[in-house]
Amino acid sequence: MEAQQAKARKFVLNYGLILGILLVLLGVIMYVLNYHLKPHWSFMVITFAVFIAVVVYGIKGYKKENGGFLSIGEAIKVAVGIALIAAIISGLWVVVLSTILEPDYMEQAIELQKQEAFANNPALTEEQWEKGLEMSAAFRGPWITFAFTLVVDMLFGLIVGLIAGAIMKQRRPYEV
User: What mean pLDDT is reported for the chain?
Assistant: First the structure.
């Protein structure tokens, strides 16, 4: 008799959509409060807490439907899947923000970084700044930011899934 195994797809899609929507809501709040260029540290803490909570609840739900059994691999699969769906949704928000709502978003961000760089390093010359700007030009488009969001969120999902899986793992008893 084979044990019935839960399908990860349901949890990945449901919790990925929830997390993606929550991340977009946080992004909208940051935009409305004018923190989208330089977020307050509290937004970052809230974002990480929401990310971790939704991924862990997704893994926990999968484990429950799987008869209380969970391997680290299954936890990672669910966590990275949730992170991927959420990253696609929140990445699209970043593209909308930087191309439609704030078409000069990148220029504003660069100007803010320039002010901080010169304030933190008085020895920095305009020529050095311009050279650094030229070198980073290829990494500044909205779709590059989207790709970066995908990679970072999936990496974070991998880490959360690994830790949660190690804590929540429960092996199936050996069947004869």
Answer: 88
